[in-house]
Design a protein that fits this description.
By secondary structure, the chain is mainly alpha-helical. The protein has two domains: 1-186, no CATH class; 220-386, no CATH class. It contains 16 helices and no strands. Helix 1 (19-41) packs across helix 11 (274-293). The N and C termini lie far apart (48 Å). The relative contact order is 0.10.
C-alpha cells in the first residue's frame, strides 16, 4: 500500500532498500571518488585535511537522507521528484569538490544548501502529524542552517580561516542531534542497517576503482602484484565488516527498545561511527593510487599515512563500533591498528609495493586468526535463524 507524506508509522520492519535509494547512493560514489582524487593529487597534510572535511560534510548530507527514507517512501509521488532534484544538487557538489576551497567554493555551498534544504522540507512534510518527530526536525533544521551558513562564510575566505570554518560547520552540523535529543526520530532497523552496509560496499568499490585509476598504460609485474594485493586488502576489509559485525550490529539495533534507545544506537553506531570507516577506506584508496602509480618508489609520509593510517582508522572505528554496541573491547583489532600506526615511519621509506604487502599480510593474519579462533561462534552467528537472534554477549567471546 503506498505511503503518504504524513506517515506516522515507519516503514515495515525488514523492508529492503529501494531502487531509488540505490540510485541516490550512486551519486555518492562520484563524491567519494572526487575526495580521494583531491587528496591523491595534493599529497600534503593540508590536502588530506581538505579531502576529509569535504567527505565529512557530504557524508552528513547522505546520512540525513538515510534517516529520511525511514519515515517516507522515496519512490512515491512528489517525493520521487524531490529525490531526483536532491541527486542533481548532490552531483553538482561532487563536481565542485576539487575547487571546494577555491574557485568553486560558492557553487559548492549553494548546491550543498539545496541538498540539505530539500531534506529538511521533506522531513517537515513527513512529520506534520508527529509532534515528537517535528521537534527533532526543527532542531536539525537549526543546526543545518548554522552549518551551511558557516560554509557560505568560508566560501569568501581562504587558507587556515576557511579550513577552520569548514571544521566548525561540520562539528555544529553533526553535533545537532546530540543537542536536540534522539527521542523523536523514527527508523526501521533492517532498512537502516542495510543502507549503511551498502554504503560501505560503495566505499570498498572506490578502493578497487583506485587501482584502475592509478594503473599506467604499461602494466608490468609490479602493477599486477599491487593489483592483487589491493584486492586482498579490499576483501579483508569487506570480511571484517560483513562476516559477523554487520549481522550482530543489525540484530542489536533491531532488539533495542523503540524510541530513544534505538535512535541513539543508530546515531552513534551508524551515523557517526560509519564515517571513520568510510573515511578510512577512502584513505586506503589514496594509498593504493599512489602505490600503483609508482610501485618501486617510496610512498612518502602523507601517502603512507593515508594507506596505513586509513586502515588503522577503519579498524579503530570497528573497535568503537563494538564498544558502543556490545560494551566489550576488540583487542585484536585494536592491536592491529596500533601496529599499523607504529609502521608509519617504515611505510614512508620502503618501496610502495612492500608497504602494500605488509598491510595485506597484517590484515590477512587478523582475519585468519579471528575466523579460526572463533569458528564456532562465527558459524552460530551467521547461520542462526532470524527468529533466534544472537544475544549481544554471545556475538564474540568477552576475552580477546
Amino acid at each position: 500500500m503506498p505511503r503518504r507524506l504524513n506517515v506516522s508509522p515507519v516503514l515495515r520492519d525488514g523492508e529492503r532498500v529501494t531502487p531509488l535509494e540505490l540510485f541516490f547512493d550512486l551519486v555518492f560514489v562520484l563524491a567519494l571518488t572526487q575526495c580521494t582524487t583531491l587528496i591523491a593529487h595534493t599529497p600534503t597534510w593540508e590536502g588530506m585535511l581538505k579531502g576529509l572535511l569535504v567527505l565529512g560534510v557530504l557524508w552528513w548530507s547522505w546520512v540525513g537522507y538515510a534517516w529520511l527514507t525511514s519515515v517516507l517512501d522515496p519512490e512515491e509521488g512528489a517525493v520521487r521528484l524531490a529525490m531526483f532534484a536532491a541527486m542533481a544538487a548532490f552531483l553538482v557538489c561532487a563536481l565542485c569538490v576539487p575547487g571546494a576551497f577555491g574557485s568553486e567554493a560558492l557553487l559548492f555551498v549553494c548546491a550543498y544548501g539545496a541538498v540539505r534544504a530539500a531534506h529538511i522540507v521533506l522531513f517537515m512534510l513527513a512529520s506534520h502529524e508527529d509532534e515528537a518527530l517535528r521537534h527533532s526536525v526543527v532542531g536539525l533544521a537549526a543546526s543545518t542552517a548554522f552549518g551551511v551558513g558557516l560554509l557560505l562564510l568560508a566560501a569568501f575566505t581562504s587558507g587556515a580561516l576557511a579550513l577552520g570554518l569548514w571544521g566548525l560547520a561540520l562539528v555544529f552540523d553533526m553535533g545537532g542531534p546530540l543537542l536536540f535529543g534522539a527521542e523523536g526520530w523514527k527508523l526501521v532497523p533492517g532498512h537502516f542497517a542495510e543502507r549503511h552496509g551498502l554504503i560501505v560496499i560503495i566505499a570498498l568499490g572506490e578502493s578497487i576503482v583506485a587501482i584502475g585509476v592509478g594503473a599506467r598504460a604499461t602494466i608490468g609485474a609490479g602493477v599486477v602484484v599491487a593489483a592483487v594485493l589491493g584486492m586482498v586488502i579490499a576483501a579483508t576489509l569487506w570480511w571484517a565488516y560483513f562476516d559477523v559485525v554487520a549481522i550482530v550490529a543489525g540484530r542489536r539495533l533491531a532488539k533495542a527498545r523503540e524510541g530513544r534507545e534505538r535512535n541513539e544506537i543508530a546515531r552513534d553506531s551508524y551515523s557517526y561511527l560509519h564515517l571513520p570507516m568510510v573515511a578510512g577506506i577512502a584513505l586506503i584508496a589514496v594509498g593504493m593510487k599512489r602505490t600503483i602509480a609508482g610501485v618501486d618508489n617510496p610512498l612518502g609520509l602523507v601517502p603512507a599515512v593515508a594507506l596505513l593510517g586509513g586502515a588503522a582508522m577503519y579498524l579503530l572505528a570497528h573497535v568503537a563500533f563494538r564498544l558502543r554496541n556490545m560494551h566489550t573491547l576488540n583487542r585484536r583489532r585494536l592491536l592491529c591498528a596500533l601496529v599499523l600506526l607504529a609502521l608509519l615511519p617504515a611505510g614512508a621509506t620502503l618501496p610502495a609495493l612492500a608497504t602494500l604487502g605488509i598491510l595485506a599480510a597484517l590484515l590477512v593474519a587478523l582475519i585468519s586468526y579471528e575466523a579460526l579462533r572463533y569458528a564456532e561462534v562465527r558459524d552460530r552467528v551467521r547461520h542462526q535463524l532470524a527468529r533466534e537472534p544472537v544475544p549481544a554477549a554471545d556475538a564474540e567471546p568477552q576475552r580477546s
